[in-house]
Predict the 3D structure of the following.
Amino acid sequence: MQLLNKTLANIQAPCAASQKAAKERLDNLTKPPGSLGLLEEIAYRMAGMQGNSLPQLPQEKLVAVFAGDHGVVAEGVSAFPQEVTPQMVLNFLRGGAAINVLARQAGARVVVADIGVAGAPMEHPELINCRIKAGTANFTEGPAMSREEAVRAIETGIGLVRQQVKERPALVGLGEMGIGNTTASSAVLAAFSGLQADRITGRGTGIDEHRLQHKISVIQRALEVNRPDPGDGLDVLAKVGGLEIAGLAGVILGCAAEKIPVVIDGFISGAAALVACALSPLSREYLFASHVSAEPGHNHVLEILNLKPLLHMDMRLGEGTGAVLAFPIIESAIHILHEMATFAEAGVSQGK
Ligand SMILES: O=C(O)c1ccc[n+]([C@@H]2O[C@H](COP(=O)([O-])O)[C@@H](O)[C@H]2O)c1
Ligand SMILES: Cc1cc2nc[nH]c2cc1C
């Protein structure tokens, strides 16, 4: 709890003066004010986060992929079996998954962590072994994990930032792998928002209509059995969350404490952002939303966080795939601030 409390205490608002100076520069560049839309918002927000009116390109780009399993899969809520979680972890480590392809293109390093996969521990020199336990408990019968386990999993995410993000400035993406984790994410969103499960539950890896109705009833049962307290982020996380969701919440808090921008991926990392922002509302200031997932709850998550997604790709894979797709857009925003001519430099007449 000490590391979590210390991290929460270190999170500060971005620099308002740098943000204001970057906005002023954007308005002096040769374009109608605001015409680069979200690119301009990214540019001045980066200035605020870096505390530099002319923010620098990231020297280090990485995507943190946390893997964890979910006891609730015993209820039949996913189209795929639980064994896929460790199988995909090994695929990430061999470089053959979608995230590896897209991260290579974006120039980002893929960091893979086992924070709660079920079954025998995996052996691989590049795997970060930080397992809290071999999957959560079935949360239709009681809490997914203890409060103490939830804190340790968050602190694992904070620790990963400290160990893995060496260079500055840095850019961090969130990724995850965990069969059953859309059920946990819908439960987390329902707990925080009070939205009914049928509005925010989707097909995850591709379940049919019959199974979708069953998944909704499983989520409703989990909420009735556990009664998570929406005013207590740790309570929601421990009762109906997941270990990879906790790890990602820790990455957000760890990055926010070090003023490192974090790019959310899909619905699951969005649920992690809800947890992080419940623990520290200021951490929201360090988040970018990469895309809107096809999962119906994701839109609600982004609305609650007041974040505008950069891409609409109908993606629903996870792994951090949407996050790394957004990396070049964030870099483009920085290039705009550095390389565009001002009206004065170019001799172009300004509007009134
Ligand atoms: O990123 C998303 O929005 C997303 C939406 C649907 C599914 N997923 C991925 O699919 C897995 C969870 O799906 P499910 O059906 O097992 O709950 C997990 O490994 C996620 O990374 C991810
Ligand atoms: C094959 C497969 C790959 C994934 N990547 C993230 N979630 C996934 C779920 C499945 C089933």
Q: What stands out?
A: Residues 62-328 form a domain with the Rossmann fold fold (CATH 3.40.50.10210).
